Amino acid sequence: MKGVLLVNLGSPDSTNPKDVKKYLDEFLMDPRVIDVPFWLRSFIVRGIILNTRPKKSAEAYQKIWWDEGSPLIVISERLQKKIQEKTTVPVALAMRYGSMTLKKGLQELVDQGVDEILTIPLYPQFAMATTETIDVKVEELKNEFFPHLEITSLPAFYNKPEYIEVLSKSISEKLENVDYEHLIFSYHGVPERHIYKRDITKNHCKIDGSCCITPSPAHEFCYRHQCLKTTALVAEKLNLKPGTYSNAFQSRLGFDPWLKPPTDRTIERLALEGTKKMAIVTPAFVSDCLETLEEIAMEGQEIFHEAGGKDFTVVPCLNDRDDWSEVLTSWIDQWRIADVKTAIA
C-alpha cells in the first residue's frame, strides 16, 4: 500500500521564548544547516545564538502568529487536507523540526498499512539545509524504526512546467492591478560553501555569473542555479522585461560569504536609486512563514519606506491554492500508478 508524507520546515509550538529556543536549538544544530564541526557548531549555537536570539525571534513570531497557531503549520495542514480530498492515497504531514516530527508522520502512515512512501519535501529548489536534511533524516528513521518501508523522495521541482505555471499565475493575479516598477525574486540565502560542497563534478560551480547558465550535471544539486532558473522561467512565462526584475537572497546568518546580493540591501539600493513602487515574491517558500510574513512583508517594507520608497507589494506564497494542491495531487497520482521520476518528468 502506498502513502505520501508532505514535509515542511517546522515551527515552534508557541511564541514563548522557551519554545522558540527549543526549536532553534534543533534547527541550528542540524549539521546540514550550520555545517561545521560539532564542537564549533555547539559553541556558536548554544554558547552565543541561543543566549540572545530566542527573545528576539519570539517577538518576531508574535507579530505573525495566527489564532489557529503558526502560519506555516496551519497552511501546511490546509494543503494536506485539500490533497487528501483529491486522492485515494493516504497523505500525512510532518515537519523537519519541531513537535510534528518525521517519525510521527511515518508512523501515521505505517499505522494505516502503508509500506511504500513518497516523501515530498515542500521546497522547489534543492539545498543541503532543506531537501537533503529531510532525505537524510528519513533514511535514518527508516533504518532504525521502519526497515520494511520502501521510501522515495520527490526531486526538486523548480523547473517543472506545472509548478512554473502555478507560480506565474499567483504572481500575475497579485500584480494584475498593481503599478510596480521592479519585481524582486527573493530566495532564502545559503552559505556559498554549500554550493561548492554539493557540486557533484567538483569543478563546475564557481559562482561567477556563468556557471549557473552553462549546462552541467552539477545543476541537479545546485541551489543557486535552480533559483536563477526558476526566475528565468517565470520571467519568460510572464514576459517580464529585462531590468524590471532581479534576484536576491535573504535571511543571512553569521559572517561567512553567502549568496549575493542580499535582499535587504537590494531593497534599500533600489529605493535610494529612485524606485517608488516595488513588488517582491519569495519562490523558495511554498508556505508563508516568518521569513515571508515578517522578514519581507514587515522588515522589507520598512527598509523600502525609510529609503524613500512608496508602494511595497508582497506576493503571497502558493500556500493552499487550489491549483497548487491539484499539481501536487497529480504528481502523487502519477506516482501511485507509475514511479516518481515519471510523475514529474
From TrEMBL:
<dbReference type="GO" id="GO:0006783">
    <property type="term" value="P:heme biosynthetic process"/>
</dbReference>
<feature type="binding site">
    <location>
        <position position="188"/>
    </location>
    <ligand>
        <name>Fe(2+)</name>
    </ligand>
</feature>
<dbReference type="GO" id="GO:0046872">
    <property type="term" value="F:metal ion binding"/>
</dbReference>
<dbReference type="Pfam" id="PF00762">
    <property type="entry name" value="Ferrochelatase"/>
</dbReference>
<keyword id="KW-0963">Cytoplasm</keyword>
<comment type="similarity">
    <text>Belongs to the ferrochelatase family.</text>
</comment>
<feature type="binding site">
    <location>
        <position position="291"/>
    </location>
    <ligand>
        <name>Fe(2+)</name>
    </ligand>
</feature>
<dbReference type="GO" id="GO:0004325">
    <property type="term" value="F:ferrochelatase activity"/>
</dbReference>
<dbReference type="InterPro" id="IPR033644">
    <property type="entry name" value="Ferrochelatase_C"/>
</dbReference>
<keyword id="KW-0627">Porphyrin biosynthesis</keyword>
<comment type="pathway">
    <text>Porphyrin-containing compound metabolism; protoheme biosynthesis; protoheme from protoporphyrin-IX: step 1/1.</text>
</comment>
<dbReference type="InterPro" id="IPR001015">
    <property type="entry name" value="Ferrochelatase"/>
</dbReference>
<dbReference type="InterPro" id="IPR033659">
    <property type="entry name" value="Ferrochelatase_N"/>
</dbReference>
<keyword id="KW-0350">Heme biosynthesis</keyword>
<protein>
    <recommendedName>
        <fullName>Ferrochelatase</fullName>
        <ecNumber>4.98.1.1</ecNumber>
    </recommendedName>
</protein>
<keyword id="KW-0456">Lyase</keyword>
<dbReference type="GO" id="GO:0005737">
    <property type="term" value="C:cytoplasm"/>
</dbReference>
<keyword id="KW-0408">Iron</keyword>
<keyword id="KW-0479">Metal-binding</keyword>
<comment type="function">
    <text>Catalyzes the ferrous insertion into protoporphyrin IX.</text>
</comment>
